[in-house]
Amino acid sequence: MNPDQYRVKPGKSVRLKDWHTDDDGGLSKDEGKDLTDELLEGLAEWQERLFAESKQSLLIVLQARDAGGKDGTVKHVLGALNPNGVRISNFKVPTDEERAHDFLWRVHAQAPRAGQVGVFNRSHYEDVLVTRVEGIIDNRSAKARLKHIGNFEALLTDSGTRILKFYLHVSPDEQRQRLQDRLTDPSKHWKFNPGDLEARAKWDAYTEAYESALGTSTAAAPWYVIPADRKWYRNLLITRIVLNTLKEMNPQYPHVSFDPLEVEIK
């Protein structure tokens, strides 16, 4: 399993039909789950170092079509982190106050502080996806917004924030099954939104919009196209990539101003 094969190279155009949705890395489901459990232990340890150092931060962006697995990723991967050092933000339909500002105004306020892992469950990219497909903005405006997004992410990077962007790549057949499961299982009825069917009917338009957004991949803020038909492999890949990134950031426990060996607790 080589996570780098799922990374969108800077300056490269993306055709999603060229990216598989059902990879398994040559592993069985049980092997993948066992490996994920091992990696999650290390993930918690490195997050603690990040929190203790409090000089850097990590931003994780999750984008996907409906039923693509964003919530599942938050639960099964990021749920292993200490909630004291995690901030999860969801970006839905803008409020009147948010619409009165530039489109990144509400996003910048949710950027992670030093020592924190920030998670965007849907993100600033919604403003070049839904808005574009639904005709709220035209292609020219979308391209301008993508340029602003690139500058925004560069600002975060210059300020000590590492950025990982994950597109959870699910197939039409797998999405159909997951949406049907929400209708079949009474405990999942609340997760079904009839509006999801309208978006599904515009599959090709959303594909084009996502391909354009994925073209913003840079060395400092890379996009990864994660095969998401197999939930266990999705979790394994994202865990591996986040852990590798934290190790690259190499946060250090701060030095203390006293000698622990000289402290006597009576």
UniProtKB/TrEMBL annotation:
Q: Name one Pfam family in it.
A: PPK2
The segments labelled Disordered in the record are 1-31
The Gene Ontology biological process terms listed for this entry are: polyphosphate metabolic process
Q: Which InterPro entries match?
A: P-loop_NTPase, Polyphosphate_phosphotransfera, PPK2-rel_1, PPK2-related
Q: Which UniProt keywords apply?
A: Kinase, Transferase
Outline the extent of the Polyphosphate kinase-2-related domain: 27-252
Instruction: Output the PANTHER family linked to this UniProt entry.
Output: POLYPHOSPHATE:AMP PHOSPHOTRANSFERASE, POLYPHOSPHATE:AMP PHOSPHOTRANSFERASE-RELATED
Indicate what this protein is called per its UniProt record.
Polyphosphate kinase
Q: Which organism is it from?
A: Deinococcus soli
